[in-house]
Design goal:
- By secondary structure, this protein is mainly alpha-helical.
- It has one domain.
- The protein is built from 6 helices and no strands.
- The chain is elongated.
């Protein structure tokens, strides 16, 4: 991705602002997903073909993670180490989503599609956050 494309996507030329925006978007999407799992684990479990207990556990993890990422996004200049942790956790989530589909879960078609879609979105967050962190480090060198 070129610098021009990246800054257009972030709608800012400032890497600090871009990083905060990508973290905030991650926090909102992740938190909303977690809250949906918590509020509707039964119906969503039936729709996705997974147990409601799994969705309750995932909902709790995602809601807490969303709050943590949101707090990081609220900082004027998020520290590099926690941002790297967010990127790595997002990448781990992506890999585990595909492993779960291949090895453990037997979801409905909707559940399989949802798992792939959310894994791709999370991988996208990781890529954008990584690029923003790199751009921020490049300007401070």
């Amino acid at each position: 991705m070129s610098a021009t494309q990246f800054t257009a996507l972030a709608r800012t030329g400032d890497p600090h602002t871009a990083l905060r925006r990508f973290l905030a978007l991650d926090a909102v999407v992740t938190g909303a997903n977690g809250l949906a799992y918590l509020a509707a684990s039964g119906p969503l479990g039936r729709f996705f073909g997974v147990g409601p207990d799994l969705l309750l556990a995932l909902g709790t993890v995602l809601a807490v993670y969303g709050v943590a990422v949101g707090l990081l996004a609220a900082r004027a200049r998020p520290a590099a180490l926690p941002v790297r942790a967010v990127v790595e956790i997002n990448l781990a989530w992506t890999v585990l989503s595909f492993l779960a589909l291949a090895l453990w879960l037997e979801p409905s078609t909707a559940g399989a599609v949802w798992t792939v879609l959310q894994a791709v979105v999370v991988a996208g967050f990781a890529a954008l956050q990584h690029l923003a962190l790199k751009a921020r480090q490049d300007i401070s060198e």
